[in-house]
Amino acid sequence: MLDSEKRSLRRFLTIYLSSTFLLFLLAAFLFYAFAKHHLLDQQLKSLEYQANHLKSALRVLHQSNEKILIYPKEKGFDSAIYNLNKEYIFGTFKQKLDKREKGYLYFVSNVEPYYLGAAYLLIRKKLDTEPIKNLQKNILFFLIGAGIFFSILGYFLGRLFVAPMREAIENINHFIQDATHELNTPISTILTNIEMLETLNKCQNSSMELKRIEIASKTLSRIYDDLSYINLNHNYHRDVKNINISNLIKERLLYFDVMIKAKEITLFTEIEDEVYLKIDQNDAIRVFDNLISNAIKYNKQKGRLFIKLDKTSFIVEDSGIGIKKEDIDKIIKRFKRANKTEGGFGIGLDIVSHVVEVYGFDLDIKSKEEEGTKVSILW
C-alpha cells in the first residue's frame, strides 16, 4: 500500500471510528442511566414494602397492652420513628430525618394515625452496588466488542474507499512508465547528434540553433531522470561512496551553462575545493540539478545566481520571482507549484526533499516575493 493510500485509510478510520465510538458512547450512557435508575427503583420498592410492614407492626404495638414494647427490627434494614416536629423518638439507628449518608438508600413514610406518637417512619438500607457494577462491566465489554467489530469493518470499508485512488495512482504510474520510455529514445538521439556536431564543428554558422536544441534536450533529459526516479518510488540501489562534490558541482554548472547564458544570468560562485561527501552520485546530481534548474527557471532575465559550497553546506540563491510565505511549506510536496507561469511538473523539490531525508541532511528554504529564493542543504 502506498503512503498516500495509508494516509487516506488512516483519515477515514479516524473519522469513522471516532464518530461510531461517540455514537455508541452516547447510547451506552443513556442505557446505563436508564438501567441504573431501574435497579435503584427495585431497591426502593423493597424499602417501601418494608415501611408498610413496619407500620403494621407499629400499629400492633400501639394497640398492645404490654408494659414492655419491643421495637420491630428487620435484618438488612434500619428504621427509626419521628414525631410531628421531625424529632427522633426511637429506632435501630439515630439520624436526623432530613440527613442522608453516602452509600445508603432512604425511604420516608408518613405514619397515620400517630402510632406510638410517631408521625414519620424512616427506612434505610445499604446500597447494593453489585448489580450496578455488573451493569458497568457488561456495557464495557459491549463497547470493547463493538469497537473490535467496527474497527475490522471500518478497515475493509476503508480498503474499498481507497480502491479508486489505487486505480488512479496505477494509471498515473503507467503513464509515467510510458512517458519515460517514449522520452528516452529522442533524448538520446538529440544528445548524441549534438555531441557529434560539436566534435566535427559542422555547425559553426548555426550555433544559436544548436544551443536551443541543447537547452531543450537537456531539459528533456532532466525531466526523464526525475520521472524515472518517481517511477521507482524513490527506491533503487544506491552506490554510496565518497564523492568529490566540488568537481561534481562544477561539472553540473557547465551542463547548465547554455541555459544560464540564454537568460543572461550573472553567475557568482564560492566553491571550496576538495569537498567530499558520502552519497550516491545519481542522488547528488538529482539534487544539484533540480536546485540549479529551479534557480534558472524562476530567475529574472539578466538576474543573479549565487552558488556556494563548503564542508558544511550547499547553497543556491537567486534573484527571481520568489515564493509566498504561505507556499514555502507546500512546494516540497509532489505536484505542488507556487508559480504556474513556468513549466514543470512540481516534482523537483519533492525529489530533493526525499533525497535530503534519506541521507539525514537538513533542507532550508527562505524566500521573498520579487526578491528571490535561497535554498540551503546542510550536511
The gist of it:
This protein has 379 residues and is α+β, with helices and mostly antiparallel strands. The protein has seven helices and eleven strands.
What does this structure look like?
- It is a single chain.
- This protein has 379 residues and is an alpha+beta fold.
- It has two domains: 3-128, no CATH class; 238-378, 2-Layer Sandwich (Heat Shock Protein 90).
- Helices cover 54% and strands 17% of the residues.
- It has seven helices and eleven strands.
- Helix 2 (130-200) packs antiparallel against helix 3 (207-231) and helix 4 (245-255) packs across helix 6 (281-297).
- The two termini are 32 Å apart.
- The mean pLDDT is 83.
How would the blueprint of this fold be written?
Layout: H1 3-63, E1 78-82, E2 88-91, E3 104-110, E4 120-126, H2 130-200, H3 207-231, E5 240-244, H4 245-255, H5 257-262, E6 266-271, E7 276-280, H6 281-297, E8 304-309, E9 313-318, H7 348-359, E10 362-368, E11 372-378
Parallel strand pairs: 6-8
Antiparallel strand pairs: 1-2, 1-4, 3-4, 5-7, 8-9, 9-11, 10-11
Helix pairs in contact: 1-2, 2-3, 4-6, 6-7
